[in-house]
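Handoff note, outgoing to incoming analyst
You'll be picking up this chain. Sequence as last confirmed:
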Amino acid sequence: MRVALFATCFNDTMWPQTPRATVLLLERLGVEVEFPVEQTCCGQMFTNTGYAQEAIPGVRQFVDVFGGYDAVVAPSGSCVGSVRHQHAGIADRAADPALRAAVEAITPKVFELSEFLVDVLQVTDVGAYFPHRVTYHPTCHSLRMLRVGDKPLRLLRQVRGIDLVELPAADECCGFGGTFAMKNADVSVAMGSDKARHVRDTNAEVLVAGDNSCLAQIGGLLSRERSGVRTMHLAEILASTEKEPA
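Most recent structure output, in case you need it:
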């Protein structure tokens, strides 16, 4: 099986440790991962702000770069959600039947990390060890668009040494939403503050999620509050193999 890593542009730019952890994890599980260097943005930032026409080149690039692979894995529910739920409409806007056919062919092969691990590799114990108190935030795109359900939690529960605690009101949005956070800053901060309060209530050392954009929103507020809670992507915890005590 030919597997490609779709790092996503924001991870590549701001959180490169996440795609690196994804590759480390998959290779530990026996998956040979390729990284096509021609990859770029999925086009979500254009589509979500009303510039769907400008997203067409990004969709063309996506299918050209990833079309030959059996599976495309991304550590981002948000970007995978864009591929699955927006690319077909963008192809229709381009009035290009060949592009629409290419989108339809590749979409079923694009997976968020937890989906690929649980549904494709059929594994929940990835051999991780992370002896810390952790709480999990299910991001809106992974929860509502991709419907990954409890797959991330099933993976986390198998991590050795972890103290996994439930996050109150976990399914509430963190208030980020891309440009929503800039256009509606007061509402965004209020929503994020509620989420940060719930995180503090767990006494967790680490907040984990499947999207770094949401972690940036919540983590920024936790940092300003000097909570001492750090944020980590799911891939980083699952890739962790801190040695267990003898």
